[in-house]
Amino acid sequence: LSSFLGVLDLKTGVIVALLFALLNKVAGVYGLIAALTGAGGSFAQISLYLYSTLALVAIALGLKAVKRVRLPSPPLYFRAFLFSSTHALSTAWGHMVRPLSWWVQDAAWTGGAQAHSAAQEAMMHAAPPHEPMTDAQRVAAAMAIWEQEKGFAAAIIAVSWLSKLYFALLIYSYASHLRKGSYRALPLSR
């Protein structure tokens, strides 16, 4: 790649990519704070919160390094690798550990309301009354909602995957141009 979306230089694109990653990992800090202050959580949730907190620190250091980069800069390859590996690790976690946790804990879910904390339970009791449903009606309603939403959910997952892949390629391209000494020759570079 020689530019970010054909409009900005690579360094600006790398900074944007790292800022998005930083914002994404901040949620893990809030989750960890909530877990440590009594909200609880499963092993899968807490371990992902810890991972997000550590990744947040690594991404912040990477952002600092990109902002003060000097030519040539081989350590950026390592940071590009870290960005890619954090994406691969979170994806693997999402596809292997979380579904296993779901299967062990929530396999019997049939569309019924299920509180995972005291706060959720309080919200459920505060909701206006509604007609009671049989188990079959609840399952049918849950499946109807799923049928409406699964295409949109798949599109969101695909777009997020493609954007993370593009951001990883962007960081690798930036590191490669810095290593080769060709960054200043790119059309949009300062």
UniProtKB/TrEMBL annotation:
It holds the Pfam family Kei1. Keywords: Membrane, Transmembrane, Transmembrane helix. GO terms for molecular function: inositol phosphoceramide synthase regulator activity. The chain crosses the membrane at residues 12-36, 48-66, 78-96, 152-175. One of its GO terms (cellular component) is inositol phosphoceramide synthase complex. InterPro entries: Kei1. It comes from the Eukaryota. One of its GO terms (biological process) is inositol phosphoceramide metabolic process. PANTHER family: INOSITOL PHOSPHORYLCERAMIDE SYNTHASE REGULATORY SUBUNIT KEI1 (PTHR28077). This is Uncharacterized protein. The lineage of its organism: Eukaryota, Fungi, Dikarya, Basidiomycota, Agaricomycotina.
